[in-house]
Amino acid sequence: MKKKNYVVIPERELGVHEECGVIGIKSSTKKELARDIYYGLFALQHRGQESAGIAVSYDEGKIAYYKNMGLVSEVFHEEELELLPVTDTAIGHVRYSTSNSSNVINAQPVVFYGKFGRMSLAYNGSIINADVLKNNMIQRGHIFQSSTDAEVICALINDCIKDNVEEGILTASRMLHGAFAFVVIIGGKMIAVRDNHGLKPLVMGERNGEIIFASESCALDALDATIIRDVEAGEMIIIDENMQISSRCIASACMGPCIFEYVYLARSDSTIDGVSVYDSRFECGKKLAELYKIDADIVSGVPDSAVVAAFGYAAASGLHYVDALSKNRYIGRTFIQPDQSMRENSVKIKLNAFRSNIKGKRLVLIDDSIVRGTTSKKIVSLLRHCGAKEVHMIIASPPVKEPCYFGVDMDTKEQLIANNRTEEEIRDIIGADSLHFIPLDLLVSSCGGHKYCTGCFDGNYSVDLKEKN
After folding, report:
1. One of 20, 160, 218, 284 is an active-site residue; which one?
2. What CATH number should be reported for the domain holding residue 330?
3. How far apart are CA 52 and CA 465, in angstroms?
4. Residue 126 sits in which domain range?
5. 191 and 314 part of one domain
6. Is residue 329 part of a domain?
7. pLDDT, mean of each 10-residue run, the chain (469 residues)
8. pTM, entire model
9. Is 258 a catalytic residue?
10. Is residue 269, in this structure, part of any structural domain at all?
11. Contact 242, 236 (CB under 8 A)
């Protein structure tokens, strides 16, 4: 029987944290905002593909919502959208699964009844003191249904509310340690919050007088909205019933956003904190070409997030760019699958190689990162099987040597191929002819030279890990 040419992309082993996408719209008039949220979630689908949900506020404080397991297009059809009332306030969420929480009860937005009536929250991040906060509230009689940090945040907000909601959210946010960006609706108000390190992205936009918050600017583009600005680190923005905008400081900003957004997580057409993701990846590729001059015939990138870096490498090196790998666009990122058996079942449908482009060629292959190495090993094997004469891998990020505690699935050192291994040892494991990584200082400069959380590369985290549970 003829051997098949395709391969899985188990890009991350799963940990227990989440990487999600949120969106919220506040309008001066009632309309079918659920439909706009739906389109915005499509643009954020890359941030989470296990579940999706939408919540809308109506009739002076009621909240209607629908959420379920699956892609946005699988969860929402015309009938679900028509069930959600016309509204002037709506939020949405996409989520990927974690190893212990692949269940609809963990889907967002979270909707609950609190001291000031119905509230709903959509959240992205990882609260490192969530267990401490949760256990303290359980001891005082609180009951939890899900295993998510989002429910902990909701309970904490309700616990902190005294005279008004804004003060409750402000007080609760100051008790949260870690990475978070969330939007809340209560009554006719919408409130957006970003942690004081800005670890998770959150941008504010405008469309015909409407205010829109989203995890990435690509969602604003999908709705024909324009960027106003990013929500500042440590900022809470309130849009009241009359569309009046006010801002409060939850904590002094100590900017240190996650650099992995630029490496892998964000869409290339997004802009985060004033930095174009496309430009940063292209610049990485150019720097890699200047640093590593490989005697090769062609250059290519692993789709999707490494393709732009490969364009930069081709432009600076003079090597001809070709497509070496074809990605099935309808599968989704396999690292969101909740267990190893499901990831292995995706082996035969995720990638294939363009034989005619690579046969007999010496190939420089650019990838965004190497975390566990299983992905790279499978790709190198596939390319050789399909005729590549040589495969030289160049990585547009440094070796991942430390766990991430803030929402990217790299939970333990033991999972990481670069833990206690040299580049040559990694090269030998994945089977490449050569292997090179971009130095951290060049990655940072490619991303605008700002201060970033680079803990997964060098152990320098934005958040003090003493605050961890």
Report:
1. 20
2. 3.40.50.2020
3. 31
4. 21-255
5. no
6. yes
7. 35 44 97 97 94 95 95 95 96 78 87 94 95 95 91 96 94 97 95 97 97 98 98 98 96 94 96 97 98 97 95 98 86 46 51 93 97 90 95 98 86 87 96 98 97 96 81
8. 0.91
9. no
10. no
11. no
